[in-house]
Specification:
With 214 residues, the chain is an alpha/beta fold. It is 39% helix and 14% strand. The protein contains 10 helices and 7 strands. A 5-stranded mixed β-sheet has the order 1-7-6-4-5. A two-stranded antiparallel ribbon has the order 2-3. Strand 2 and strand 3 (49-51) form a beta hairpin. The structure holds zinc ion (ZN). Residues 112, 114, 141-142, 144-145 line the site of zinc ion. Residues 112, 114, 141-142, 144-145 line the site of zinc ion (ZN).
Length: 214
């Protein structure tokens, strides 16, 4: 998957995709089972299927600048009583859309900085597809935020601090990665339990000629 492969640290030597990040790929593919096969060499899913595109490639100076901004957002959010996370989504027109962690402020466990930035970017650009955009996060995105970036068709992700720094501060990012790596299944039992009407919503979707594909 192109998007996960694009995750890399900015400072220090480049490193390959973390093995546990790879474990997310089958989950994502299973969500897209109805789509066509991913083309050799990667590809990107658009409303009409996988299309080969050029991924956004910011300069190293831009990456450092945006990450510094994301970290500053995170620091200010702590001062405002929130969690120590900030993120930016930069859309292809250069617009910067900000997000900070709002979990405790909004009583929303999904209001991670990256998710908030993605929601803001999509709302402000009037498009649920953020293809061509780049996500900058003050800390390594957790599985929730990676999945949100995938659904938003974000091109590329950069982050500053990593999951271990978050864990040292008391956050669960690292242990959730272990769940998706398959080593901590007890954290959340998930059971496939079909019922006779399981397929009806998909039939309705396929038969709806007015649908908006995504
Ligand atoms: Zn997250």
């Amino acid at each position: 998957m192109v998007i996960i492969q694009s995750i890399e640290t900015v400072s220090g030597p480049e490193r390959p995709v973390p093995p546990d990040a790879r474990s997310l790929v089958p989950l994502v593919r299973s969500c897209r089972r109805a789509r066509e096969t991913i083309p050799a060499g990667g590809g990107k899913l658009g409303a009409s299927g996988y299309d080969q595109i050029m991924l956004a490639q910011p300069s190293a100076a831009d990456v450092r600048e945006y990450l510094t901004q994301a970290v500053a957002l995170a620091e200010r959010n702590v001062a405002a009583g929130g969690g120590p996370f900030g993120a930016l989504v930069v859309t292809p027109d250069g617009t910067v859309h900000e997000g900070v962690n709002r979990v405790t402020r909004d009583n929303d466990p999904t209001a991670h900085a990256e998710v908030v930035a993605i929601r803001t970017a999509a709302a402000e650009s009037g498009n649920f597809d953020l293809g061509g955009a780049v996500l900058y996060a003050s800390c390594e995105p957790c599985p929730l935020c990676l999945a949100a970036a995938l659904w938003a068709r974000i091109d590329r992700v950069y982050y500053a601090a990593d999951r271990h720094g978050a864990a040292a501060a008391g956050f669960d990012d690292a242990v959730f990665y272990e769940y998706f790596a398959g080593t901590r299944p007890e954290l959340l039992p998930v059971s496939h339990t079909p019922v006779p009407t399981s397929g009806v919503p998909f039939d309705a979707w396929r038969n709806n000629t007015e649908r908006t594909d995504y």
